[in-house]
Specification:
The complex is a heterotrimer. Chain B has helices at 4-7, 11-43, 57-84, 89-119, 127-147, 152-184, 196-249. Chain B contains seven helices and no strands. Chain C has helices spanning 3-17, 20-40, 44-65, 69-76, 79-85, 90-119, 127-151, 158-166, 171-186, 190-221. The chains are: A mainly alpha, B mainly alpha, C mainly alpha. Chains in contact: A-B, B-C.
Amino acid sequence: MDLGPHAAFIWASYAAFVAIVGALIGWTFFDGRRQAAALQDADRRGLKRRSEPGPKQDGA
Amino acid sequence: MQTLTQRLANPTRFMEISRAALPWVTAGAALFIAYAMYLVFFVAPPDYQQGETVKIMYIHVPSAWLAMMGYSIVAISSFGLLVFRHPLADVSAKAAAPIGAAFTLAALITGSLWGKPMWGTYWVWDARLTSVLILFFLYLGLIALRSSLDDEALAGKLTAVLALVGVAILPIIKFSVDWWNTLHQPSTAFTSTVDPSMRTPLLIAAIGFTLLFIALHLKGMQNEILRRRVKTLRLAEVERGERLFSARAE
Amino acid sequence: MSPFLALFKRDLTLAVREGAALGTALGFYLIVVAMLPLGLGPDLKLLGRIAPGILWIALLLAALLSLPRVFEADHEDGSLEVMATAPLPLELAVASKALAHWVSTSIPLALLAPVLGLMLNLDIAIAPVLVATMLAGTPAISFLGSVGAALTLKARRGGLLLALLVLPLYIPTLIFGISAIGFANLGQEGFSASFLILSATSLASVALAPIAAAAALRLQLS
């Protein structure tokens, strides 16, 4: 697969593209995990959404 | 029968639908991109004029299209927020802006790297490149405005107004840049008449990257909905804590 | 006197009485134009060729500096809320404020341009054309800028953010202003086309920008 005289530019632009899109995918996936974890943490502490059934310690 | 947008108005239903759709969209994106890359690197012929460097086109052109698609998604979402008060419109606009900005940046960098072998310099004030650069500034403006306001609801609506102002003036900017370009430079020698044998890989790559954009947008919206749920839960916890504290203090 | 004129007169007298806003804009305009040759080198031929561009861009930046003041003062003392609920539509109130900014800041800057042009070896023959394009183009600067000012009213680092939001919107005005000067300079017939488009952009801004600015203000006040 000979990419000719300007092979460096082809690889450079593909590398830049993969870097940007990769960062985007990575950040989105990581952010998703972080929010899910935060939600579980809130769940563990017994915080319930108004719409969800289940034991509700109502404040005083 | 409710329209799709009405059915999607309810966040929980949106989460169900998007959770179901996401794997399919992601798989589709991966498939199309892989096939396109195979075609680009093993099948597509070199361009008669610029040889192999035409391979950069297969990521540069889809990025530029997605940059514009991203801005139209933000504009449509902004319109939905301000006019129809659609509850998920702000979530959609907030999720779409960074993705659009990233593809705009990718288009600029690949365009500049493509320019070096083709025009001899990294940056040419060509009308198309300049318009994409200005589109990048509009994205920066949207993201900067949204991040500089504490009140999220207000920030969403103000960013929506800015997006609509941007989309209204975009054609005038495009026209003025094209006019400016013809003043200073005859149209670039390389007219990109895409040979059919190259058009199919380009189309497949475009479909693949569009599916990728949609997958990222859906996932981004899900994250935003979860983030807002966590925030309301925590606020409720703080308020309950204060009530307990004040009750005990009496 | 119609409420619009009354409000316009009030804003104008406020702007003129509080000369600082105009003073800082003129001062900034002067120092930017004076600094550039220090960076670009004293070659008069080069400076003469790029003088219109320098003067136009410096004018954009100088007008930008005085824009946050258009709403901030009234927002702080609550008169913005009064205007929002007054019989005069908020769009017209915003338009009168932008007009006051245009008259009190953009026009003096435009009239000062040829004087600063002397420092840049500006060809005196094109000075009138320069001022004409600036006068025709600056309404867009003030009105589009008022949209930015309304959007960044409560934002942190408002001034900086305003520049980032508004400068892309100034691109058509800048391009057609400079191209009009270029055509006039070469005596070609393209001048009228650029000048007409420049004026059209300004008129469109005068008509449409207050709508966006008022929408943004209503959001800010709600």
